[in-house]
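Colleagues,

For the teaching module next term, I've prepared a clean inverse folding example: a structure given as C-alpha cells, and then the sequence designed for it. I'd like students to try predicting residues themselves before seeing the answer, so please don't circulate the second half yet.
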C-alpha cells in the first residue's frame, strides 16, 4: 500500500529540494543554527509536508489550498536564500542553482493547481 502523495512528482521534487537546502545550510555559521538555518530548513520541509497533507483531502479545493501554502513556503525559502546570499554564506552560483530549482518547483505546483481548477 502506498500514499497518494508518493506518486506525485512535485512531492518527490519537493523532498529533493528540502534535502539540498539541508546540505546547503550545513556550511552556515554556527550562530545561524537557530535563525536562518532553522527558518530555511523548516520552510523547505513545509513544501513537501503541505503537498502530502493536501493530497488526501476530500476535495480539490482543499488540496489547492495546501498547494498554495506550499508555494508560500517556497517563497519563504527564496527570500531566505537572498538574505543568505547578501550575508555571503554562499556564492552566486550556489544561489542560482537553488533559485532555478525553486522556480522549477513552483511552476510545477502552479501547473497542478491549474489542473485542479
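(Answer key — instructors only)
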Amino acid at each position: 500500500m502506498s500514499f497518494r502523495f508518493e506518486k506525485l512528482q512535485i512531492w518527490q521534487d519537493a523532498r529533493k529540494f528540502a534535502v539540498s537546502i539541508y546540505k546547503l545550510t550545513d556550511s552556515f555559521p554556527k550562530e545561524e543554527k537557530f535563525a536562518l538555518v532553522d527558518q530555511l530548513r523548516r520552510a523547505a520541509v513545509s513544501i513537501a509536508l503541505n503537498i502530502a497533507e493536501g493530497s488526501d483531502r476530500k476535495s480539490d479545493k482543499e488540496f489547492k489550498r495546501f498547494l498554495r501554502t506550499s508555494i508560500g513556503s517556497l517563497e519563504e525559502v527564496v527570500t531566505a536564500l537572498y538574505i543568505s546570499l547578501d550575508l555571503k554564506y554562499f556564492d552566486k552560483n550556489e544561489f542560482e542553482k537553488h533559485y532555478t530549482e525553486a522556480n522549477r518547483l513552483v511552476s510545477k505546483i502552479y501547473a497542478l493547481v491549474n489542473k485542479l481548477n
